[in-house]
């Protein structure tokens, strides 16, 4: 479904990604593992169109789509849940979700279905998003991405700073959405969780993929080495 | 001995006191009415700052441009200044839309300096074009009977034109506020104002939204410019002063707070007229003085917080 071929990305003169190769199959979940500053978020931003990259370095169903705008990627079905949730503080919970729904793809997921799935959110739908707890805010952030009916969902640090219970709830929603065949790319600080949720993993170090393979038989020692760069 | 003296003084003072009270209330009301117009000047600036994070130095010159365009419409048709709005406002919208698409969208959203420099240049260009086209002479929009009519109110006389201006200003503020806080388009506007990058992620076309926004801003400018031109003579060089008053209204109210801008405008208007009571030439000076004092006391603006 998604194929990344020797992708390089730059912030001005600074090169953040070096010849990254990666693929995501239909319905698959992959994890990107790596230390802070390794380039995981940069990779996500490149995939979603927030960072200009070479057109041929990102293929979506065989078509070169690298460097196209966020709106074009959204229309194609690639959506990002950004790190730190980034809800709009001036919008209510419902407005946050409906804004994305309005600009996203038509499909199964809409605000009503989400409020059915998450009664706790339905109760606070008319509150400002900043009034919610961190876990609830993360659920809104994922809901906001789901209502665009993505085929490939990119999740950047969706469990950061949440209580274990809230993390479980976030992943419950994600797995509920995956049942319909949606593909997922996870960036997750908790390596055990990252490997448990994913089918395959990629370790990224200083902008390069240094290790990859099926998550089920990942060698934790090798992953740790790749993570810390020893 | 002391008591009769006091009574005499009181008796002497009372009529003046009454008179002063009347003058005070009249000045206050006229100040508020003038302030409502300043608020309308400030609205466009408040919107472009709040939504696009862009300071438009040419804002005052757009107000003057609008007044000139209205004057051209008035002279070449048999429409009055208020009726000229029918033609002026669509024209202003198109001008705003084109400016954003052709010019502003190239610089907006990067560092704040680029829009500042661009609109600074644009301000000079507009002033010179106006001078080339209309000479440096002052003009005004013919307000006709409206300029002379007044309403008698308990011994005071309040001008009908300022009353109409203030009513229009309030209506525009109410409408724009509703548009931003109660409509789907408004939600997109607020989202972009909050976080442009994330708004793009959820599919908002920020550049197109900005183009409509600047069109809308110039519509509010168009309304303000006609009300201004009917009230005060203007010349191609009047823009910068309009900009200063607009700025003071916006900053005083707190950046990005629409009703704050409205109140800010009122305060500037009232200060100016009370200043003018003390000395006719000191009106604007007192406006600036109150602005500076308020800025020292509350650098974040009087109504900090609420984004709009």
TrEMBL record, chain A:
Pfam families linked: ABC_tran (PF00005)
Domain of life: Bacteria
InterPro entries named in the record: AAA+_ATPase, ABC_transporter-like_ATP-bd, ABC_transporter-like_CS, BCAA_Transport_ATP-bd_LivF, P-loop_NTPase
A GO molecular function held by the record: ATP binding
Protein name per Swiss-Prot or TrEMBL: Amino acid/amide ABC transporter ATP-binding protein 2, HAAT family (TC 3.A.1.4.-)
Family: Belongs to the ABC transporter superfamily.
GO terms for biological process, alphabetical: L-amino acid transport
Keywords: Amino-acid transport, ATP-binding, Nucleotide-binding, Transport
Segments forming domain ABC transporter: 2-230
Keyword field contains Transport: yes
UniProt keyword ATP-binding present: yes
SUPFAM superfamilies, per database record: P-loop containing nucleoside triphosphate hydrolases
TrEMBL record, chain B:
GO MF assignments: transmembrane transporter activity
UniProt keyword Membrane present: yes
Keywords: Amino-acid transport, Cell membrane, Membrane, Transmembrane, Transmembrane helix, Transport
Species: Amphritea atlantica
Signal peptide: none
Annotated GO CC locations: plasma membrane
Lineage: Bacteria, Pseudomonadati, Pseudomonadota, Gammaproteobacteria, Oceanospirillales
GO biological process: amino acid transport
Family: Belongs to the binding-protein-dependent transport system permease family. LivHM subfamily.
Transmembrane feature ranges: 22-45, 57-76, 82-104, 154-176, 209-230, 250-270, 282-301
Protein name: Amino acid/amide ABC transporter membrane protein 1, HAAT family (TC 3.A.1.4.-)
Membrane topology: Multi-pass membrane protein
Annotated localization: Cell inner membrane
């Amino acid at each position: 479904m998604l194929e990344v071929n020797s992708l390089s990305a730059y912030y001005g003169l600074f090169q953040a990604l070096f010849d990254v190769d990666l693929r995501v199959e239909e319905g698959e979940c992959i994890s990107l593992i790596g230390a802070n500053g390794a380039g995981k978020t940069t990779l996500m931003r490149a995939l979603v169109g927030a960072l200009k990259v070479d057109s041929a370095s990102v293929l979506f169903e065989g078509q070169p789509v690298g460097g196209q705008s966020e709106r074009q990627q959204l229309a194609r079905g690639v959506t990002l849940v950004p790190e730190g949730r980034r809800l709009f503080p001036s919008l209510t919970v419902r407005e946050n979700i409906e804004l994305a729904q309005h600009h996203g793809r038509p499909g199964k997921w809409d605000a009503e279905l989400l409020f059915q799935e998450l009664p706790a959110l339905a109760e606070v739908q008319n509150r400002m998003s900043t009034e919610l707890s961190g876990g609830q805010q993360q659920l809104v952030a994922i809901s906001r991405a789901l209502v665009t009916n993505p085929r490939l969902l990119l999740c950047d640090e969706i469990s950061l700073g949440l209580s274990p219970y809230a993390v479980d709830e976030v992943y419950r929603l994600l797995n509920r959405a995956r049942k319909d065949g949606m593909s997922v790319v996870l960036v997750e600080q908790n390596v055990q969780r990252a490997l448990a949720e994913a089918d395959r993993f990629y370790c990224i170090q200083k902008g390069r993929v240094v290790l990859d393979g099926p998550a089920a038989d990942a060698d934790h020692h090798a992953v740790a080495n790749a993570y810390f760069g020893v | 001995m002391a008591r009769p003296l006091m009574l005499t003084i009181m008796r002497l003072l009372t009529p003046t006191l009454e008179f002063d009270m009347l003058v005070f209330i009249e000045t206050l009301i006229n100040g508020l009415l003038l302030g409502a117009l300043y608020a309308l000047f400030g609205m466009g600036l408040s919107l472009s700052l709040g939504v696009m994070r862009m300071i438009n130095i040419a804002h005052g010159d757009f107000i003057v441009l609008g007044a000139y365009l209205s004057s051209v419409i008035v002279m070449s048709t048999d429409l009055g200044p208020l009726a000229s709005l029918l033609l002026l406002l669509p024209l202003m919208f198109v001008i705003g839309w084109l400016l954003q698409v052709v010019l502003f969208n190239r610089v907006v959203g990067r560092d704040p300096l680029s829009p500042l420099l661009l609109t600074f240049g644009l301000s000079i260009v507009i002033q010179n074009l106006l001078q080339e086209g209309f000479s440096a002479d002052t003009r005004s929009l013919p307000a006709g009977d409206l300029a002379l009519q007044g309403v008698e109110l308990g011994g005071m006389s309040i001008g009908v034109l300022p009353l109409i201006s203030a009513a229009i200003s309030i209506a525009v503020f109410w409408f724009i506020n509703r548009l931003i806080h109660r409509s789907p388009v408004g939600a997109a506007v607020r989202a972009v104002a909050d976080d442009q990058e994330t708004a793009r992620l959820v599919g908002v076309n920020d550049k197109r939204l900005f183009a409509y926004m600047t069109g809308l801003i110039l519509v509010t400018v168009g309304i303000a410019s006609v009300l201004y031109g009917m009230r005060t003579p203007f010349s191609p060089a009047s823009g910068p002063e309009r900009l200063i008053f607009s700025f003071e209204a916006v900053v005083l109210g707190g950046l990005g707070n629409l009703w704050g801008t409205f109140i800010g405008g009122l305060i500037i208007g009232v200060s100016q007229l009370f200043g003018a009571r003390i000395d006719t030439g000191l009106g604007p000076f007192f406006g600036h003085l109150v602005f500076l004092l308020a800025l020292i006391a509350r650098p974040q603006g009087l109504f900090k917080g609420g984004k709009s």
